[in-house]
Structures are given as structure tokens and as C-alpha cells.
Specification:
single chain, alpha/beta, Aspartate Aminotransferase, domain 1, Aspartate Aminotransferase, domain 2, seven-stranded mixed β-sheet, three-stranded antiparallel β-sheet, 43% helix, globular
Length: 356
């Protein structure tokens, strides 16, 4: 089935099938992709530098703006160094190219992003799903005596036990890799993601991510220990990939600076997200009450899928049913900084009616 064609008309509405709907989809949680300063930075960069760098970062495509964005990411996340790549998917591939010849064993969260699973597979490293019981993970590591590399997203519809993972990594002098694409700009007092939320030590930590979520732009990165980041820049994945387009680089710099200066955007969205999830939990929805803006509603019965879809359409809310590789179909709603309290109440009203 072809994907629906959606055309934004303002920060919270789209046109679908020639009709205007309230929109709770997408990942642009603070709508920074449409911020006037971000759009102005794109225009100025395009006018000055054009669109294409004409090469990879190690040949003829390296530009001062690329270095500036890397420094901006490191400053935002408070890490030693950052390597910029065109996509988050490519960032994970490059990182595991570094690990491919290491004497380590990978333990990955079963719900981690497909790009992480693909990267682990391509590395050829021995791999296991992280056991639910941390004692079982500890026991397994003791049996083979190799250093563990624990791999997870920083944020799912729930929060993974990152502190437990960090403690295991510390104990065995291993590595903790967190793809924090969905948590950066969302969790933590300053929006530094799950690492800030859990106050995770950076001693054995590498963060990967995408600038396409709360940052609202595009691009990927590996950030953390300077030595590991240098190794990423020596990979084939990094060396043979065209450099990120400069207008997007300029936009990402501006967006991150806006997030850094306007932390109330982040904390306000956390509070409103918690309030909405507390309400849904009381209605009987299996929704983890955490300060993230996404709300996932899994429905097993086809007739109930149609019922919720019809209720949403009748309320002029776009029915964001998601079909994603390796996951069951589900309704996914995302609150944003741009939604009014009235917008959110309208969505919650539909979900309440669906439960009746």
C-alpha cells in the first residue's frame, strides 16, 4: 500500500485527501524545521555556498560548517568529540565498522532501531539479545570473559534500564552504545537525552543519533570518547559517503542553539506529555507514564482499528496508523511544543470515547 501523501499547512495541521486535519504525527517535536531563524539560516547558507559540497569529508567535501556542527553537537551533549554523517543509519554503520575487529560480544535490546541491528549484523560480531534479568546478563558475560558491548535506544515507548546497563559496562570495562535519536531535545533538563535523564557516566559511552527528530533537520552523528570518534573518521562508511549538504548543516547548528537557549520548550513538553499519559493510564490504556511526547496505541482487532480510525477522522484528526518494519501496526501520536492545550484535549477526548 502506498504511503499517504500529507502536506503541512501550519505547525499542527496537514492536508490529506484534500481535507485539513489536526496532525499528531512525525518527529519534529518542537517544529524547529519551520522556525524562522532555522529557515533563514538555510537561505543564507544556500545563497553563500550552494547545495552540494562536491565530495566526502575526507576528499574535497569538508567545510568549516561541518566542523562547527560537530563542535555544536559535542557542546550540546557535553561529549569529547563528534563525527558527523549524512544520516543516523549511516552513523550506526560507521560505528560498528570500528568495532568489527574487536574482541567483544554484542548485547542488543530486542526493540532497538533496525539500523543498529543491521550494523551489528554487518560487523560479524557475536550477538545476543539483552536478557530481561540483569543477573542473567552478568552471568553470560562471566561465562565468555570477553568485554561486552551493550547496545540500545535511549527511548522507546518506555525507558530502558540504562543505569543497569551502565553499571555492567563499568564492571567489565566494556562499551555502552545508546542511539539517542528520539531522546535528544526531549529528555533531561537541558534536552541532552536519556544520558542526561539517567545521569549516565560517559567513561564507556558512545552516543549515536539523528538530527531529524527534535532538532527538526537531518543528519546523523557519533559522539563520545575522542579516540573512538577518530576511529569513525577512518572507516569506509565515513570516507566514501558524500558530505552532509551545507544548508542542512547550517540549519542544524541554528536549531541546536535554539534548543540550548530555550530549555523551557523541552521542560514544558515533558510536563504536558506526563499529564496526557497520566490521563490515558487512568482510562485504562497501557501507556508508560514517562515524560516523552509519543503515545503508542496497539490494537489487535481489525474492527477496533477501524473504529478508532473513524473516530479520529470524524474529529478532524489525522489517523496516524503506523506500519513499520519488524513491528505490529499501531496508532502513534506525537505531542509537540506547537500543540495547544485545546488540541491535546481534543485528541484525549477521542481516545476516551474509544474506550467507552
Amino acid at each position: 500500500m502506498p504511503a499517504p501523501i500529507l502536506q503541512p499547512v501550519d505547525l499542527v495541521h496537514i492536508i490529506w485527501n484534500d481535507k485539513k486535519y489536526l496532525f499528531f504525527g512525525g518527529y519534529d517535536y518542537h517544529r524547529l524545521s519551520q522556525h524562522p531563524k532555522v529557515k533563514q539560516s538555510v537561505k543564507e547558507s544556500t545563497d553563500k555556498f550552494g547545495l552540494n559540497c562536491g565530495g566526502s569529508r575526507v576528499t574535497t567535501g569538508n567545510h568549516p560548517l561541518h566542523n562547527q556542527l560537530e563542535n555544536t553537537i559535542s557542546d550540546f551533549l557535553q561529549t569529547e568529540s563528534t563525527a558527523l554523517l549524512p544520516t543516523g543509519y549511516m552513523a550506526n554503520l560507521a560505528l560498528f565498522e570500528v568495532f568489527a575487529d574487536k574482541d567483544i560480544v554484542c548485547y542488543y535490546h530486542p526493540k532497538c532501531h533496525p539500523s543498529l541491528k543491521a550494523a551489528i549484523k554487518m560487523s560479524g560480531l557475536p550477538k545476543f539479545v539483552i536478557p530481561e534479568a540483569i543477573k542473567e546478563l552478568d552471568k553470560h558475560i562471566k561465562e565468555h570473559s570477553k568485554k561486552p558491548c551493550i547496545i540500545t535506544d535511549g527511548l522507546y515507548s518506555f525507558l530502558p534500564p540504562l543505569q543497569d546497563y551502565a553499571d555492567i559496562v563499568e564492571k567489565y570495562e566494556g562499551a555502552l552504545i545508546i542511539d539517542d535519536a528520539h531522546a535528544i531535545g526531549i529528555l533531561g533538563d537541558h534536552g541532552r537525552g536519556a544520558v542526561e535523564h539517567f545521569n549516565i557516566s560517559k567513561k564507556h559511552l558512545l552516543i549515536t543519533g539523528s538530527l531529524s527528530k527534535a532538532v527538526g533537520i537531518s543528519g546523523g552523528f557519533v559522539s563520545g570518547l575522542a579516540g573512538c570518534v577518530r576511529a569513525v573518521r577512518d572507516t569506509i562508511a565515513y570516507a566514501t559517503t558524500s558530505a552532509m549538504p551545507l544548508p542542512m548543516v547550517a540549519a542544524a547548528i541554528t536549531s541546536l542553539e535554539l534548543l540550548k537557549k530555550n530549555t523551557e520548550l523541552i521542560t514544558d513538553l515533558q510536563q504536558r506529555s506526563l499529564k496526557a499519559k497520566q490521563y490515558l493510564f487512568k482510562l485504562g490504556y497501557d501507556v508508560p507514564v514517562i515524560p516523552s511526547p509519543t503515545i503508542s496505541i496497539i490494537i489487535d482487532k481489525p474492527k477496533d482499528v477501524d473504529k478508532l480510525r473513524d473516530l479520529l477522522i470524524n474529529a478532524n484528526i489525522y489517523p496516524s496508523l503506523i506500519s513499520y518494519p519488524e513491528k505490529p501496526d499501531y496508532f502513534r501520536f506525537a505531542l509537540s511544543s506547537a500543540h495547544s492545550d485545546k488540541d491535546i484535549e481534543k485528541l484525549l477526548g477521542v481516545l476516551k470515547k474509544f474506550k467507552q
